[in-house]
Design a protein that fits this description.
This is Tetratricopeptide repeat domain 8. By secondary structure, this protein is mainly alpha-helical. The chain is built from 25 helices and no strands.
């Protein structure tokens, strides 16, 4: 009897040690996928979900210009490649965007500042957990091919630890090459799905946690309708904020923002004042170009959590682009008081001080931003804004040097090419201005300024055909631009007289 008890306790200790090591290895590469909402080119091509091609205004994220809330125009607030205004806080969804065509997605330069989607979202998850791709010299800790999943499913605590390890780790295959990553990830999620299905069957379908995990596997595999059923079933058994967030992610991937808003609002009825739910509503309104509603919900977030960095940054950005730099300055100062100390914050502080006519703090803020810049892209942003300050005070030579320094740090900065072209036009250097504008329009076809400036330049030198073509591109990028419409009208009159 004593020997039996000793063996029993020994096996319990082994299981405890195994479970502890599994959880520790999972924590090394754990990625909270609630905020991960990127759609790669591979997912976009292979998506078989039927979505309405022509959606009603205000009901689709793929048509950013159909907002009923009166979104800001590109003349007031710059937009990204996907057609949405630049936000005050960088999130994965705001980086990737939703290009209208595959050709547009591939042609967009791949930089951190553009809206080109990543190649594959599955590869993105693997790269976030880089340690999961390290090979163990003693062999893999868990060999999935040798596991009896049915046996582990009958032990709830071990099953949960094993599921987390499988779901968040790269497949235990030695020397996995980059070309094999999508397939190995596919196998990994299927193994996790099999374990979760067996475990929830053993729990007689009464454990909400396993249903959520099955929904997560379905979501990663692109089976969004199946994931929706699992999350809804889990919510019937147990109200959880995370489950609501997962369900809203499914609807956003299915391009149903209105349904996602209803899910968030129903969640707020059960969890009043929950910051993540209010912030989710604000993000959706912001993606739909309904900036006024987004600002209201961000203010509601600050009522519940007055240290929420995303809400403070987005409200400050909205005030700045609403021609209220003094109010924006207060929000950015609040971030500074909270301990946020980076290049972007001082860059924004410098711009707010300049437009609020507090010139004594402008240059010192930009100097601090240059000092804190971590890469050349950030340095380019600071020099570009310094060029705007120089234009504002009338020092065109300093502006020229600042825009040149911008291109030295980031050769793909389309706005700097456009502004340099304007300065060259003022000097009478027509050919140089034309070359710069062509470069700007090729780097950023979604911007209307290079197309419009090229149309004006071509019209002045008598090249009416090129002027008309560029004006049409400008109108396509910004249909409400009055000057472009007037130029097209004048060119049509010229053509009619010929």
């Amino acid at each position: 009897t004593a020997l039996t008890l000793l063996i029993f306790y020994f096996f319990i200790l082994i299981q405890a040690a195994w479970s502890l090591k599994t959880r520790a290895l999972t924590e090394m590469v754990y990625v909270d996928e609630i905020d991960m909402d990127e759609e790669g080119i591979a997912e976009m091509v292979l998506d078989e979900n039927a979505i309405a091609q022509v959606a009603r205004p205000g009901t689709s994220l793929k048509l950013p210009g159909t907002s009923q809330g009166g979104g800001p125009s590109p003349a007031v607030r710059p937009v990204t490649q996907s057609g949405r205004p630049i936000t005050g806080f960088v999130r994965p969804s705001t980086q990737s965007g939703r290009p209208s065509t595959m050709e547009q997605a591939i042609k967009t330069p791949r930089t951190a500042l553009t809206a080109r989607p990543i190649t594959s979202a599955s590869g993105r998850y693997v790269r976030l957990g880089t340690a999961s791709m390290l090979t163990n010299p003693d062999g893999p800790f868990i060999n999935l091919s040798r596991l009896n999943l049915a046996k582990y499913a009958q032990k709830p605590k071990l099953a949960k630890a094993l599921f987390e390890y499988i779901f968040h780790h790269e497949n235990d295959v030695k020397n996995v090459s980059n070309s094999c990553v999508p397939f190995s990830v596919f196998v990994k999620y299927h193994s996790a799905l099999d374990l979760a299905a067996l475990a929830t069957e053993h729990a007689q379908f009464k454990d909400w946690w396993w249903k959520v995990q099955i929904g997560k596997c379905y979501y990663r595999l692109g089976l969004y309708r199946e994931a929706e059923k699992q999350f809804k079933s889990a919510l019937k058994q147990q109200d959880m904020v995370d489950t609501i967030l997962y369900l809203a992610k499914v609807y956003l991937r299915l391009d149903q923002p209105v349904t996602a808003l209803n899910v968030f609002k129903q969640g707020l009825d059960r969890f009043p004042g929950e910051v993540t739910l209010i912030c989710g509503i604000a993000r959706i309104y912001e993606e739909m170009n309904n900036i006024s509603s987004a600002a209201e919900y961000y203010k509601e977030v600050l009522k519940q959590d007055n240290t929420h960095v995303e809400a403070i940054a987005c409200i400050g950005s909205n005030h700045f682009y609403s021609d209220q730099p003094e109010i924006a300055l207060r929000f950015y100062r609040r971030l500074l008081q909270m301990g946020v100390y980076n290049c972007q914050l001082f860059n924004n502080l410098g711009l707010c001080c300049f437009y609020a006519q507090q010139y004594d703090m402008t240059l010192s803020s930009f100097e601090r931003a240059l000092f804190l810049a971590e890469n050349q892209e950030e340095t380019a942003d600071v020099w570009y804004n310094l060029g705007h300050v120089a234009v504002g005070i009338g020092d065109l030579n300093l502006a020229y040097q600042c825009f040149r320094l911008t291109l030295v740090n980031n050769n793909d900065y389309a706005e700097a090419y456009n502004n340099l072209a304007v300065l060259e036009m003022r000097k009478g250097h027509v050919e140089q201005a034309r070359a710069l504008l062509q470069t700007a329009s090729s780097l950023a076809p979604h911007m209307y300024e290079p197309h419009f400036n090229f149309a004006i330049l071509s019209e002045k030198v008598g090249d009416l055909q090129r002027s008309y073509t560029a004006a049409q591109k400008s109108e396509e990028a910004f249909p409400g631009h009055v000057d472009t419409q007037q130029l097209i009208k004048q060119l049509k009159q010229h053509f009619a007289m010929l």
